[in-house]
Amino acid sequence: MPIASTAAHPLPATGFADVTHILVSVPPDTAGDPVLDVHGTDVAALAGFAWLGYLSTTGVYGDRGGDWVDETSDLRPAGERGRRRAAAEAGWLDLWRRDGVPAHVFRLAGIYGPRRSPFERTTRRHGEADRQAGPGLFPCPCR
After folding, report:
1. Residue 24: its H or E element
2. Which of 5, 15, 79, 84, by CA, is between 20 and 30 Å from 36?
3. Rg from Cα positions in the chain
4. DSSP characters for 29-83?
């Protein structure tokens, strides 16, 4: 069930009773990650907590000039938004290392902002989504 909270109106610690899974999709702001800053200690204190997912961006890798990146690549964010996301990732992963919170980071590509999904960009350029297959690629079921 979605739970709404803001830094100005945080949930009481009892608001996390019986919570076992959390998916964080809130972007960090200039002050940091508002969910981590306000509720990190609440999450770390949860008994029976099973999983936390944090939605980040591939922007944390920076511009690699077309070179491949993967989860083991160094983070080199070029812009402020990427630097904020990298810092938020580090905070959630520190919660895992320090307190054992099972945190997983998902780096999503090109989804932020209007008309930014890969399918929309492809459709704008070519009129329809392209199917791609090959070694290491999976065919797109878009047609």
Report:
1. strand 21-24
2. 79
3. 18
4. BTTB-HHHHHHHHHHHT-TT--EEEEEEEGGGG---TT----TTSPP---SHHHH
Between the two ends of the chain, the Cα-to-Cα distance in Å is: 33
16 confidence band (pLDDT: 50, 70, 90): confident
Count of residues making up the chain: 143
How buried is 67 (Cβ within 10 angstroms: 0-12 exposed, 13-18 middle, 19+ buried)? exposed
Backbone angle region of 129, left / alpha / beta, with phi > 0 → left and psi within -120 to 50 → alpha: beta
